[in-house]
Amino acid sequence: MVPGRVRGVNKMEQSKIKKVLKLYDTASYAAKSPVDRALWHMLKRWEDKLPEMLPDDPEWFHRAFRQVDVLPTGNEDMVVYCLLINRKMFWEIFNKVISE
Fold first, then answer.
1. Residues 25-82: tens digit of each pLDDT
2. How far out from the chain centre does Cα 37 lie?
3. Comparing C-alpha atoms, which of 93, 24, 95 is closest to residue 55?
4. What b/e string do you get for 39-64 counting C-beta neighbours within 10 Å, with b at 16 or more?
5. Contact in structure between 3 and 80 (CB atoms under 8 Å)
6. What are the backbone angles phi and psi of residue 33, rounded to the nearest 5°?
7. Which of 39, 66, 76, 97 is deepest in the core (most CB within 10 A)?
8. 8 A C-beta contact, residue 7 and residue 71
């Protein structure tokens, strides 16, 4: 599978990103982390445009925001890219869901 600009319409993948966002919403709200909440809001806002979740290359999700035009503007891509850096809570949830 070649990483694309936008996630496909694969129902399995749609359910996984929805699960990541739901779990991340609950965890980030409970942790009262403003950075995690900002990231959740950005990901939720652009849920239908997020990059593919590749089980054999989970880092692609992060790299995509620098390497392809995921969101409408480069500024928005860079905001998400920067928010994803060192977000332990997000990556733990992401890696758990992607490996299911």
1. 999 999 999 999 999 999 999 998 898 888 888 899 999 999 988 999 999 999 999 9
2. 13
3. 95
4. bbebbeebeeebbbbbeeeeebbbeb
5. no
6. -95, 115
7. 39
8. no
Is this structure's pTM higher than 0.70? Answer: yes
**Lookup: tokens for 34:** 């403003």
* 82 within 8 A of 28, measured Cβ to Cβ: no
> CB-based burial of residue 33 (10 Å sphere; 0-12 exposed, 13-18 middle, 19+ buried)?
middle
Q: Are 84 and 40 spatial neighbours (Cβ–Cβ below 8 Å)?
A: no
- Say which residue the tokens 């920067």 belong to: 82
Task: Look up residue 47 and give its DSSP letter.
Answer: G
3-class DSSP state of 11: helix
Amino acid at residue number 73: T
How long a stretch of residues is the chain? Answer: 100
